[in-house]
## 1
Amino acid sequence: MIPKVIVHNSISIDGSLVNFDVNMNLHYQITSGFKADMHLVGSNTAKIAIDIFLKEILQETEDDFKKPNKKGILWAIPDTSGKLNGLLYIFRQSEYCKDVVVLISEKTPKEYIRYLKKRDYDYYIVGKDKCDLKLALELLNEKYNAKTILTDTGSILSNLLIEHGLVSEISLLVHPVLVGKKSYNIFKNIEENLELEVVNKEYFEKKYFWILYKIPDELKNLSE
């Protein structure tokens, strides 16, 4: 069974994901309302977040070689090439992340697999070359009872999920700013027009407009 997948992002008026100040408190206030069972995070986004938001990177400790016992939400990260080799402990240390589940392929470097085993990360092979997203979602539902999965990652993963018909809802927090030439459009890789249904909308702080769209059932699970 494929869980309900919600794509949530904060964007500018012209659809950019970057080069403007995001209201992070409001962004996460909205995400908490979805009561997701897991977060799905792209490896590129995770790597960029480390570079941008961490002024000082703490060192890996002995405790990072075992599963943490803490509250939070599980993160699932497709990382078939091992971009996060040597860096996953940063998320394991985060107060927002309970632990990380890594989704790999048959071609994932053996060095990365050894890294995951040594530190007791849950990992699953879900594809020959790249990550089979449909298979990955089914696995997360089966292994972790993930009925609702939220992704507020960048455009690559969210666009792939949409293109494969795996997304149920798209949530957008529109900020009152035009980025212009420096914009990086959230949906720049979508090939076909998709007609969506507005199911909710709200105005915050006389500045921000939140819109929740539903993808009609006939446009979902197109990869089946």
## 2
Amino acid sequence: MLQDALYLREYARALSLAGVRSPDESALVMFNEHSAGAITVERSLHEGFLKDLGVTQEEAGVMQASPTTLAYTSFLLKTATLGDYSEVLGAVLPCYWIYERVGKTLLERGSPNPRYQKWLDTYGGEEFGALVQAVLDLSDSVFKNLNPAQKARVTEAFITTSRYEWMFWDAAWRLEEWPVGQ
């Protein structure tokens, strides 16, 4: 949960940059709303989880990003800053899409644990699904007019971020820490 909170702060920044990079004002508004929403929804989820786990906000505030969290967020922010708009879309899309698919799949199974069920309800629900569909529709319209070199860069950004998504979940499973101390 703590790594997720650190990740989402930087992901929110990448979403804002996606909005800024967009030539379309409606995408600017959408991405900035999603950025604010990521912070608001995740704070709500995390505050509840942190409280349930006995972690104070102060403890959470001094948490260091794991190697995977730092690498993932650094890639997102580098792409959002230096890539072209289509690359930024390719980089932010997997987080939306993977969470929605995982959330929807797991929501069908449900969880006896209220903590997990709340997560499933958030990411498997219709409201999040509508946000994801809006980003997919926008991406489809932007990607259809790309030349082969642009398509290759977008594909590379999408694949890299998808790999980081897998690595992020795996790092949480393994309770990843830095191999050398401070």
## 3
Amino acid sequence: MPDVEFFYDYSCPWTYMAFTRLREAAARTGSTIIWRPIMVDRVRREVNPSCAASREDPEPRRARYQAKDLQDWADFCGLKIVKPDDWPPETNRALSGAILAAETPLIAKYSEAIFRAYFADGRDISYLEVVAEIAADAGLAGIVAHLEESAPADRVRDNEAELLERGGFGSPTMFVGDSMFFGNDRMPLVEFALGQASGRTFVMPGQHG
């Protein structure tokens, strides 16, 4: 059964879409997702220090198109995505929760709830009490007491260091074996790679005939 490593941060709406589509691709190909939470802004500061400045003062035409593109993709994925005024949020507690949740079968449920809380419901996942409530509602009340411990936060940083060492630069990044894929729009290629790795006949759209 093939594996796909998923390096991701809850602050990115494109990652929310990729998360949803990756779960579907994994189900179709019989694959296992290896969850690798990262804080994407720390990664970006390492590889592209000017990114924050361009985000604070975007070119207007490009910004208008990017907003349209985001909603077009959200519609395509069947998701409600609204970027709150406080975007991007501080995700350190939510990511520590992901490290802890990944040790249980409830990591996907937890991650979906975190993404939906911020991008659909407008809840501020920067706050400990918000993340704690989401975790408890997902059946993970046992992790709440550990959300601010250093060990899960250290593992998030370890994931970031590994991603940078392997040539990554943002979220979402997926690895199938040593092959890296970046971005929500690369999901067909991820699914194709998983299909090939499964050893089963796998036909992507456009390859029929």
## 4
Amino acid sequence: MDYIGAGDQAAPLLREVSLERDEARSLFEQVLRNIELFLACDCIHGDLSAYNILYQPGKITIIDFAQAVDPRYNLEVYPLLLRDIERVCRYFARYRVEADPNILASAMWDRYLRGEW
């Protein structure tokens, strides 16, 4: 486990910061990339939102995997993946980052099932 922050100042939750639009787009892409990497490692966070993402300028750290699930043992967990992506899309929509969570989740899930990483 690592400390995330600068000096004695812990990194804030993503929900606690205000972003510039350009940074929001970059962070959104980082979050999606992390979701895809987790899935490639047989992990769905299961409770992802701006409450479980730490912010540092230009980067994010996803935390709190207490509800994570392994899709190898239950292929009925797609709704959890979709919910994670929906919450991320909803948060970043306030910064005019537009994306369709259904398309994103479906594409990730298809790549996962085909093992295309």
